[in-house]
Task: inverse folding
């Protein structure tokens, strides 16, 4: 499972973000994703991966941190 | 220009529609004038709740107009409203791309909507009750809210005046236009987008409408002729969906930028039946019409056309016929009255706006649309000039009245004049 690849795919295909602007250190706000879109973004990722992040643990700054969080949660669930 | 003390004369300078006959005020009017029905037998629901329902669906697909990021928080009703408003702004000569010129900055938004994002509501229920999850998409609330259409218009073009939504079922958008007229007339704003939007043709909601016993049955001659206002063989209404939006301006604001009017919005009246939730009563309808005419300074004898609310239900059409007799008296037989819902169905929160748009077209072109599928008028409608069979020329048409009567007993009537 490559959560980062899924994040990139979702940002470009569903959230209208230019692929050139995306890098692991980018934050959602830097990419023009407002707070409402950000919660929808996380919700859709969770839905597609079949996991749920606790609100406390869903804190991340960069796309890479989000990917790491999601991958950890998938592993915990599978394990 | 800055708003100033009223009363100001108010004009319609642009209008647009997305509805059962597709996009465009001119093509929609042509279709309605020809009596071309948009009613079909449509599949709704799946599996054990699958059913065929008579509907006037719009061919509109939001994906043709908005990329996914824009659609994400835009319900079908709101998307229809935005596309209808684009047409209206373009016709008015107000550049929709130009948010900075100030022409739109101080404008307000007055929209009617009955239910908001019905599809998001139903999807939310499905997740909760069927998939047994409390996880709802964060977009659900922004999609459901009934002021979504008004909010999207305000945000899209930077309209910083009032952004108001009216929800009184079938009279929502007529009231929205009427309340906008009052604001413009008073001088509190000098430009507005006003109208209505509705898109609630989802399986669960249609089942609820059917439960009321007001939905038409398929006519032996085919689904397309099943909505038959004022006809003795009528069996009920057919639900439709869509949006219609007007650009309204005070005379000064319009002249200031050298714009041309399509029609003058002359009067508005609203009144309550104070009677029943679903059963109408003539007293509220009569008061609404009389108030609208008085507001316009028009006598009943000067009205050259009435766009009836007439949905095709037994009670509704009968009561409206009685109300028209009371307002127009002996002269009622001389006033052409047509019920266009026969071909575009009942757009509920957008009905009044769509029918006002058709009424404006009737004035501009001096052509009156027919009451389609009317073969044998009901006893109560006998003697009324219901414009059966085909539309007709109306060379002297100057003033028209458009009626919108709602569940809950809310009534709104608008008077519009040729320019």
Result:
């Amino acid at each position: 499972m490559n959560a980062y690849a899924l994040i990139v795919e979702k940002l470009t295909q569903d959230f209208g973000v230019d692929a050139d602007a995306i890098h692991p250190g980018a934050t959602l706000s830097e990419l023009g994703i407002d707070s409402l879109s950000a919660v929808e973004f996380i919700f859709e990722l969770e839905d597609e991966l079949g996991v749920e992040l606790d609100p406390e643990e869903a804190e991340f700054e960069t796309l890479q941190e989000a990917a790491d969080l999601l991958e950890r949660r998938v592993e915990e669930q599978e394990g | 220009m800055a708003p100033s003390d009223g009363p100001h004369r108010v004009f319609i300078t642009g209008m647009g529609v997305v509805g059962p006959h597709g996009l465009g005020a001119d093509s929609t009017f042509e279709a309605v004038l020809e009596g071309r029905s948009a009613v079909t037998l449509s599949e709704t629901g799946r599996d054990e709740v699958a059913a065929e329902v008579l509907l006037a669906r719009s061919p509109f697909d939001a994906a043709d107009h908005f990329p996914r990021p824009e659609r994400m928080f835009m319900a079908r009703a709101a998307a229809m409203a935005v596309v209808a408003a684009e047409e209206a702004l373009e016709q008015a000569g107000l550049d929709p791309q130009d948010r900075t010129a100030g022409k739109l900055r101080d404008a307000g938004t007055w929209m009617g909507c009955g239910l908001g994002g019905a599809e998001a509501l139903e999807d939310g229920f499905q997740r909760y009750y069927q998939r047994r999850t409390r996880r709802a998409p964060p977009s659900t609330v922004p999609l459901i809210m009934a002021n979504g259409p008004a909010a999207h218009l305000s945000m899209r073009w930077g309209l910083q005046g009032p952004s108001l939504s009216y929800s009184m079922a079938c009279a929502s958008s007529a009231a929205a236009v009427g309340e906008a007229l009052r604001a413009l007339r008073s001088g509190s704003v000098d430009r507005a987008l006003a109208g209505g939007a509705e898109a609630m043709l989802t399986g669960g909601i249609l089942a609820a409408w059917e439960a009321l016993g007001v939905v038409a049955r398929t006519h032996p001659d085919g689904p397309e002729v099943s909505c038959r206002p004022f006809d003795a063989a009528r069996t009920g209404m057919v639900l439709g969906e869509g949006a219609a939006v007007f650009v309204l301006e005070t005379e000064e604001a319009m002249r200031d930028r050298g714009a041309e009017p399509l029609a003058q919005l002359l009067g508005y009246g609203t009144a309550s039946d104070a009677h029943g939730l679903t059963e109408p009563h003539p007293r509220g309808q009569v008061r609404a019409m009389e108030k609208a005419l008085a507001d316009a300074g028009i006598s009943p004898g000067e009205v050259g056309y009435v766009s009836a609310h007439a949905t095709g239900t037994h009670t509704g059409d009968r009561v409206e016929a009685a109300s028209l007799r009371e307002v127009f008296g002996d002269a009622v037989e001389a006033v052409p009255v047509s019920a266009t819902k026969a071909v575009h169905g009942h757009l509920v929160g957008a009905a009044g706006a769509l029918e006002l748009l058709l009424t404006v077209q009737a004035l501009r072109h001096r052509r009156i649309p027919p009451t389609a599928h009317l073969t044998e008028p009901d006893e109560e409608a006998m003697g009324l000039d219901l414009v059966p069979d085909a539309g007709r020329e109306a060379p002297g048409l100057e003033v028209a009245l458009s009626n919108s009567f709602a569940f809950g007993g809310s009534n709104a009537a608008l008077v519009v004049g040729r320019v």
Remarks:
- Chain B touches chain A at residues 67-70, 72-73, 135, 137-139, 142 (CB under 8 Å).
- The CA atoms of residues 205 and 211 of chain B lie 10 Å apart.
